[in-house]
Backbone:
């Protein structure tokens, strides 16, 4: 397995650990439950993540059953309000519902939080310690992806390219 894919899996494990900790910490605010799929949008992901997920699904011989019709703008892997690739879902999906801290375009810290979960909070209650460090994780992913695209010879990508996850559904179907 390529070192960049191993690095992706390490980042993913770290995200799971951190998300679990934040989930416990914000438990009283979280209304996330089976059947809520507001966060499940038509995301685009880095080639590193795309091919790691594709190869993991192939290795498990997992061909997800997909919905015959998709709600516009929703994720292609969402069926009956459930994720059909849950164990292999992208990093962004592992932070759903949590407060995310990131640097906005005007160089000010901004917070993204689900309005169903955090509908009554004071911005000052959120700190580096109790929010998900989205920018830090994104830079780690970006760096691992840079190495991945340089070494990947199946197809050529630029380091800034993103691939819509819906293409993966097509690719899996045809294999
Ligand atoms: S991959 Fe799964 S968790 Fe992520 S957006 Fe799609 S259905 Fe939701």
Residues:
């Amino acid at each position: 397995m390529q070192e960049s894919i191993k690095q992706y899996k390490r980042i993913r494990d770290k995200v799971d650990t951190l998300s679990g900790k934040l989930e416990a910490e914000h438990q009283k605010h979280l209304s996330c439950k089976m059947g809520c799929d507001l966060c499940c949008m038509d995301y685009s992901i880095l080639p590193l993540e795309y091919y790691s997920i594709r190869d993991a699904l192939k290795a498990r011989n997992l061909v997800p059953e997909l919905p015959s019709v998709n709600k516009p703008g929703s994720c292609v892997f969402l069926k009956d309000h459930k994720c059909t690739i849950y164990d292999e879902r992208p990093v962004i999906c592992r932070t759903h519902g949590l407060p995310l801290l990131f640097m906005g375009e005007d160089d000010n810290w901004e917070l993204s939080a689900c309005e169903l979960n955090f509908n009554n909070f004071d911005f000052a209650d959120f700190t580096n310690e109790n929010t998900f460090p989205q920018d830090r994780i994104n830079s780690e992913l970006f760096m691992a992806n840079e190495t991945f695209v340089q070494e990947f010879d199946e197809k050529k990508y630029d380091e800034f390219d993103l691939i819509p996850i819906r293409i993966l559904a097509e690719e899996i179907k045809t294999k």
User: Anything to note?
Assistant: The two ends are 21 Å apart (CA to CA). The mean pLDDT is 92.
